[in-house]
């Protein structure tokens, strides 16, 4: 299953996550934690098998320069897990 995202969606979701982390003094969140929060707020549809699939797909599309890259996103090495850091 393929999902397409717009630059506006990336900006909206990125701003929401940065505001949430700043407000709640959270240093970083995993892709799955972000996906759960976004799903609760109706900003991202969850699909099986893992809830973070759509969110990680958005991050991969940004990494591959198909859309904007989300601010604060990075991949931990060597496991290459996606993490979103609080930039404030």
What do these coordinates show?
This protein is of the alpha+beta class. The protein has helices at residues 7-23, 31-40, 53-63; strands spanning 28-30, 73-75, 82-85. It has a 3-stranded antiparallel sheet. The longest helix has 17 residues, at 7-23. The chain is globular, with a radius of gyration of 12 Å. The mean pLDDT is 87.
What is the topological layout?
Blueprint lengths: L6 H17 L4 E3 H10 L12 H11 L9 E3 L6 E4 L3
Antiparallel strand pairs: 1-3, 2-3
Ends: how far apart? 35 Å
Task: Please state the overall shape, judged from the principal axes of the Cα atoms.
Answer: globular
Biggest beta sheet summary: 3 strands, antiparallel
Side by side, the strands of the main sheet go 1-3-2
Mean pLDDT: 87
Q: How many β strands by DSSP?
A: 3
pLDDT below 50 for ≥5 consecutive residues: which ranges? Answer: none
Compressed to H and E, one letter per element, the order equals HEHHEE
Summing up helix and strand content along with how strands pair, one would put the structural category as: alpha+beta
Helix content: 40-55%
